[in-house]
Amino acid sequence: xxxxxxxxxxxxxxxxxxxxxxxxxxxxxxxxxxxxxxxxxxxxxxxxxxxxxxxxxxxxxxxxxxxxxxxxxxxxxxxxxxxxxxxxxxxxxxxxxxxxxxxxxxxxxxxxxxxxxxxxxxxxxxxxxxxxxxxxxxxxxxxxxxxxxxxxxxxxxxxxxxxxxxxxxxxxxxxxxxxxxxxxxxxxxxxxxxxxxxxxxxxxxxxxxxxxxxxxxxxxxxxxxxxxxxxxxxxxxxxxxxxxxxxxxxxxxxxxxxxxxxxxx
Length: 265
Hints:
Structural class: mainly alpha
């Protein structure tokens, strides 16, 4: 399993550095903020695609949702640990160069505790999400679940299914394609995939557990230990929060597009 950890530590930073070099030489008019932002999104999309593939593999291999195990669960968790650490750093770099580009040259003339603090405040939810995965999800998966529930870990991997489409949306904006049909279609896919794989997934897991043991869906919650229900609630709450933000953003874009033709008339 150590090889999975080392592999992750080499793959994700390597992809990020390679992407920065290729984008810098290809899009010479792009700023450092543009290059770092797109590179971070590309690596995020690759990790999410691998996580989704791993999740589907585990889910389709486990007939008993509690007892069946799959080697890919622990291997991919360890493979993803370096990514979580790296992505915090990549998000900070994106924040730093973006703020510097906006004219905050006095505060962002160099990396400092002030710039790190500003990043932690601005992206507190994302940083908290990554830290929770590192400090809570990872130890529970590797050491405390006694080899049970690989099916449900696979389900949680699939929550990343919407991430590549979120990244594609950011990249399309960066390429100046935010008013195209492609961007609108991608936005619809983001909403549908996010709602399905990050919110509906939780009742689906409860339903699968109930089907395994012959328990009606509405009674499954009473058959699970309190810590399981609390843990699922903690995981679900930020997903609902982010989905609301996505809906608000989609509504703003829709209203903006409706007003555009009206102004031209």
